[in-house]
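Interim report to the steering committee. The following record documents the input for MFS transporter (424 residues).
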Amino acid sequence: MAEPAGPEPSAEAHFAPAERATLRRLLTSSALSKIADWQLGIVVPLVVLTESRSVSASLLTFALRALAYAVSPLIGSVVDRFDRSAVFIAAQFQQALCLAVVAFTPDNLSVLSVMLLLSGFGGVASSIAGQFVLVPQLFSRTERPHAAARLGAVIEYSRAFGMLVGGLTVSVSGPTFALACTALCYAAAGCIAHGLPRARPGPSRSTLKADLVIGLAWLRRPEIFWLVTSLSLMNLASGQIEIVLVTLFEQYGLVALVSSLILTAGSLLSGAANRLASRLLPRSTPERRILACQSLHVVSLAVLCIPGIGAKVVGYALHAFATGAINVTSIVYRQNVIPIDIAGRVNSTMRMFIAGSIPLSAAVYAAAGHMRPALYWVPGLVLMAGAVLVWVVWVLRLRKAGASVKGQQATASQRVGQEGKVTE
């Protein structure tokens, strides 16, 4: 049986002055970037719904932004080959440029679709560099969980603010102004991130083919394979839930501002869960904490199956809290297992499947739109139950082997071997 992981370190981390300044700059730039992301999540579906009057078209158009995850291993290779801070900065300005173009032609769905697709490449680079590479590179091992938790909380609170601003601006000033605000947020994020310390890659160089081999080799490791499979199913079940709810609330007759307020409240719950993640089940193993969060996700989908707008609000609140908790828990799990020198390549390969399932989630709910209303959420519930079942199998295997990620992390970088050519 796996030994308990023991309590997490105190949530009150004592960062060195230089680390504290770096953390503030990373948090601020990430916050602005995520505000822009979630403004898009409100504005774009409503623009498409207004122009096309089709819920399916609204979901599938916004899903174009997530298609960039199909080539995320290539983007991860770029992240690992160049200064990670520079990549993060460039990603913000690339997204700003794409949204500036859309702001001038909000009624042209063809231009909107192309720019959303292109902005997705910057979004993937920003996510990989900001959440998975810069934190472990810029902060010491003891401070990483605290930095990750604070970054996760800021991202969730920014999501809440972004939804609120998106609903407010599109309701009051229309899509052009709302999209211009989004572009300005990305540009401001890039300007603030310009002061981040350099985060140079390691001295080793490899070919693009070798980079892909490294990522795929790590994907075959059991501790990574089971996580990727489970989280991919989770995103397939609920990866587009906010966009789905925006369109459903529109059909209920709610104005954009009210819809955004509901989603904002859920995001605040998610942010609170981020801050509390290290205190939830502190004596349990990381794997069991992930399982607890997934179980709450199943409950949330079951509540969403209940007819009525009240059930949708409660179900989303449960979903948001579970998402906030599992985001931090699973990210720290990965940071402890994957060596920093290949973090970009490995995480990008993982996210090709994990985040790449998000646009497929839109397809699931677009197809469910043709089912009876009582069955609309059932496919998502079944997929979420499948995700939990996959992770239960892994937890039981670990219990039988008497292992946990806590026992694996100390030797993770030495186990890269020939795949990564990295040693400590």
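Residues 1-12, 409-424 have pLDDT under 50 and may be disordered. The committee is asked to note this result when reviewing the revised timeline.
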